[in-house]
Amino acid sequence: MALSLLRQTRCLCTLSRTVLAFQSRIGKRSYAERVDIRGGSLEPVVSAFCAVVGDDGVSLGATVREQHGKDESVHSCRLPDVVVWPRSVEEVSALAKICHHHRLPIIPFGTGTGLEGGVNAMKGGVCFSLRKMDRVLDLHQEDFDVSVEPGVTRKALNTYLRDTGLWFPVDPGADASLCGMAATSASGTNAVRYGTMRENVLNLEVVLADGTIIHTAGRGRRPRKTAAGYNLTNLFVGSEGTLGLLTKATLRLYGVPEAVVSAVCSFPSVQAAVDSTVHILQAGVPIARMEFLDDVMIDACNRYSALSYPVAPTLFLEFHGSDRSLEEQVSIAEEMTRENGGSDFSWARDAETRARLWKARHDALYAAVALRPGCKVYATDVCVPISNLPQIVVETKEDLIKNHLTGPIAGHVGDGNFHCLMVIDPDDPDELQRVHRFTERLARRALALDGTCTGEHGVGLGKRELLREEMGPLAMEVMQGLKATLDPKNLMNPGKVL
Ligand SMILES: Cc1cc2nc3c(=O)[nH]c(=O)nc-3n(C[C@H](O)[C@H](O)[C@H](O)COP(=O)(O)OP(=O)(O)OC[C@H]3O[C@@H](n4cnc5c(N)ncnc54)[C@H](O)[C@@H]3O)c2cc1C
């Protein structure tokens, strides 16, 4: 008892000291503008947070704030003023009410693997780390669905499902939180067969900026389809923390395929690789993964992952099904690829070889960094109708060469979505400018080919102007109206998307 009291006193003393240090550090003006609105000081706000989540659920420490002010992008880090760790939806709601009362920005934080600066605290404010809400709830095996709290990552969910014969297939490579994935409308290598987060979220529990808790498809509901009212679920999927905090997601699950076969195949040209993709899809082969790597990317993967594939445009393929159906799928795909000049096939049936192959693909970003040690990668993505893919890839490669930029290309080619992994020296402002202009040209090329400026990474900080070009003024006005209705004080992740 005495020991616990002593610990508590120490904890509170430390907190008070940190609060004082924090007050002097953040400077009177910015603080006064945001927190002193009702003539109060920071201490009551922090005390109010502590009353909800306890002293250990609030941090003002610089290192913690730095960890929560940046993601995996090259956007510079903007620190939140405070980080909080709620453990339940009620706590999220209570904290949001305090922020709403004091007009403090709210920045939701999943695992920080985003690639467009989504967690940067542009106007300071409170970072809500949802890591401690990490329970898998309500698994319905017979209905193929499950609900998860926002701290559950995709790998943790699949580990939980290991003995059920079910899995969640959306796979952005990084071990992101499932609600972060919903917030960015993530997809990845399996989307050609299983869809993106948009197709796989059945319901969301959301805490709005004023602390109101809503369920986008009705509380506890999980039908496979619905024609009831506006599609609120998909309004929040891809909203990047600007409309509310996602505190629970109900997700579709799939049966683990009986058999899996992967393959790697090289092509004489980008056109030949993409033509094969189109032909395989047109033949109705239910292919699970179709990944394109250009010659620069496969070369980087060879070096980084100790592989020895030919340095040429390459497809990584994967087929899921029963043993019998796989035979048919594989033989059609092999025929189509050979007709398009594909060669150097290597097939992998055993789990270990497949895992090595896909690990190499998922490590593409790190393989790209290794091309220029000491540099960073700015991964930018666009998506076009699949028939326009060869044109945009060829033009983009010409652009890279002309501007002396290193940007290996890897793409979820079955969806017409691809990434340029721009390797840049962050200390070279001239190179940063050239890369910035390149990414804008790339996005505008995608728009000119009826595509989008981002297929899966989101708008975040970097693509707001491009979103306006993509949507046009009237659709933007509708988006702004929705934002103003749900978040009239503009507290949810301000400075992003719109
Ligand atoms: C090596 C690597 C490869 C990647 N490959 C892909 C890929 O193939 N496909 C792909 O789609 N992405 C890819 N990504 C990007 C990233 O993994 C996704 O954007 C992911 O969905 C981000 O999830 P997170 O939990 O890390 O979110 P964070 O980075 O923490 O946040 C991202 C955004 O979502 C908001 N947010 C987070 N959690 C919530 C919540 N609970 N409620 C409301 N808003 C929230 C944040 O405010 C922020 O705006 C890759 C990243 C890396 C590092």
TrEMBL record:
Reaction equations catalysed: (R)-lactate + 2 Fe(III)-[cytochrome c] = 2 Fe(II)-[cytochrome c] + pyruvate + 2 H(+)
Enzyme class: oxidoreductase
Keyword presence, Oxidoreductase: yes
Domain FAD-binding PCMH-type residue range list: 76-256
EC numbers, comma separated: 1.1.2.4
Keywords for the protein's UniProt record, in alphabetical order: Acetylation, FAD, Flavoprotein, Mitochondrion, Oxidoreductase, Transit peptide
Obligatory cofactor(s): FAD
UniProt GO molecular function: D-lactate dehydrogenase (cytochrome) activity; D-lactate dehydrogenase (NAD+) activity; FAD binding
InterPro entries on file: FAD-bd_oxidored_4_C, FAD-bd_PCMH, FAD-bd_PCMH-like_sf, FAD-bd_PCMH_sub2, FAD-linked_Oxase-like_C, Oxid_FAD_bind_N, Vanillyl_alc_oxidase_C-sub2
GO BP annotations, alphabetical order: lactate catabolic process
Main location: mitochondrion
Cellular location(s): Mitochondrion
Listed GO CC annotations: mitochondrion
UniProt keyword Transit peptide, yes or no: yes
Domain of life: Eukaryota
Record PANTHER family: D-LACTATE DEHYDROGENASE, D-LACTATE DEHYDROGENASE, MITOCHONDRIAL-RELATED
Subunit structure: Interacts with CSRP3.
Its biological purpose: Involved in D-lactate, but not L-lactate catabolic process.
Family: Belongs to the FAD-binding oxidoreductase/transferase type 4 family.
Protein name in UniProt: Probable D-lactate dehydrogenase, mitochondrial
Organism from which the protein derives: Conger conger
Lineage per the UniProt record: Eukaryota, Metazoa, Chordata, Craniata, Vertebrata
